Amino acid sequence: MADASPALPVAGLADLTAESRMIATPWSRMVRGIGLGQYPIDYDPVAAERIRHTFDLLAAKVPPVNSYTLFARRLADLILNVAAPDVGFSRTDVGSAVGAIVDAVRSEANPYYRVTAGCLLMDAFAKLGLDRKLLVNEWMDFPAEILAVTDQIRPDRIEDENSGRHGDYERLSACTAVFLAFGQLGLADRLVTGERDHVREALDLLERIPAPFFRGRGGSMLLSVISLLGYDGHVFDGPRDYLKEVLDHLDRADELNLPPAFPQPMTEDFGKIYPLLTMLNAIATAGRAEYLTYRKDRLAEAKELLGRIDPVERTHMGLYYLVALHNLGRLAEQVPDLDAFVEDVLGPWDHADPGANFFRNGIAYPYMIETAMVTGRADLITGRGLDRLVDSYPDLDRTDLDRANRPYPFSYTLNMLGEIGEADRLYTPSPRYGGRSAVAWVVGHLSEGGREEGTRLYMLDHALISYALRLRGRDRGETELFKKFRFPLAS
What we know:
Layout: H1 18-22, H2 26-31, H3 45-61, H4 67-83, H5 91-107, H6 111-128, H7 142-149, H8 169-184, H9 198-204, H10 212-229, H11 233-236, H12 242-251, H13 253-256, H14 268-286, H15 298-308, H16 311-328, H17 331-334, H18 338-345, H19 364-374, H20 383-390, H21 400-404, H22 407-419, H23 424-427, H24 438-444, H25 456-470, H26 480-483
Helix pairs in contact: 3-4, 3-24, 3-25, 4-5, 4-6, 4-25, 5-6, 6-7, 6-8, 8-10, 10-12, 10-14, 14-15, 14-16, 16-19, 19-22, 22-25
């Protein structure tokens, strides 16, 4: 297929909703499970059947004891039944389905993922317009139950190449998801009333994340959500200024010597620009322009770092950079020729190999697609490039690491191709996959019981839930929480 004519859901940055501007990147959605279901469309029975078929394939590989995938399947089924105009899903039907979903959430042994699942359910309720009394009633207070689980998340439980550098990063990320879910349900006041000030407690977790990379990246989303909820006084107006403290910690990166380790080699500057760009978005959300020049010119620093990282790394960071500048109202000033900038970021589209590795190259293509999408540059997304991406997954058999992590880039691709109306490429039988579809082949090549992939499977669950939520209908766009929010510094 030589050409592509993707149906982009937006014509440019000016069309993005507040949710898409605050939670703009695949990392937040696929890894952390927040901000799913962006760019809603009308219900599509073909897409609904694809989602259910993918969960059927997963069920054949992943045992029922995997509570998270069971939860994801049940939640996606609820979403699709509510969204389908011809199903007539009643309030009683919703209540029954919610009971089974809550059971699956409670069965998840890992408290971090139990919180993530619970927040996904609450977020779906808000986006589907369901009655929150099904979650908060005389028999159950599900939001309070999930908030309490955050206390069970212990530091440094993430077992990866950065073991020992996370501290309370996981608990902080869980608090971010819970705060956002509470805001979506109109329960944000619970966080700051009563015996505990949960917002203040979460902010205090920041100093218990040792590595600047993780403190900046995780802290930026927490700070953004707190501003969204209207509690930014907790950040700036108390005895401590938490945003300044994070920036100070980023500035000490060389002194602290706790650089992030990545599964594939990345430049030292990549580890510095990533948290900086996310913090720029937090500054934009808070509307505090003075922090752009706190101790140094933060925009000049970002531009310099962007020029030093290599072209493949820029495909990751270009999206973060553009959205942050847009939210700050500084895009035209910092990037006077947006088209030329986007064309440069997408330069690797014609020659980078997405099958070379799962992380560095594997997620570069979805980032390039998203960058082209949010800037309205459909012309830069070619059919040849999409074919190269869809056909790349057998190449990840070359190493054990790439094979076990294959769901990581695949979830990004499923999410992105769905957003631009090209998901059929993943569900069409292909000679590259021996007459099977890419989806069937990738799921069919999971390890026995999904043991080697571990929590990487949850990213595929998130992609499928997000796909399902997008089918809720164009009339169910932004929730009230995001609809009333404006970025203070943007024109």
